[in-house]
Specification:
With 71 residues, the chain is an all-alpha fold. It has one domain. The chain is 90% helix and 0% strand. It is built from 2 helices and no strands. It has helices at 2-31, 37-70. Helix 1 packs antiparallel against helix 2 (37-70).
Length: 71
């Protein structure tokens, strides 16, 4: 049970770092939007996939944490 709690915390933190990375990268790309909008749009499409993965990992971590706490 304790291992599930620690694993859940670790996964949730990894997901949170990924989400923070996505927000910072999107803010940086927003500043570059005036120079080359098509390149920014292409990079944002890739960033959406990273964001979805980070949210999924954070969700799995929180779910694992809750299960570990219940058991």
């Amino acid at each position: 049970m304790v291992l599930m709690i620690y694993a859940g915390i670790a996964l949730a933190l990894i997901g949170l770092v990924g989400i923070i990375f996505c927000v910072r990268e999107a803010a940086r790309l927003k500043q570059l939007a005036q120079e080359d909008p098509e390149a920014v749009r292409a990079r944002l499409h890739g960033l959406v996939a990273v964001n979805m993965g980070a949210v999924g990992i954070a969700f799995m971590g929180l779910a694992l944490l809750v299960v570990g706490l219940i058991l």
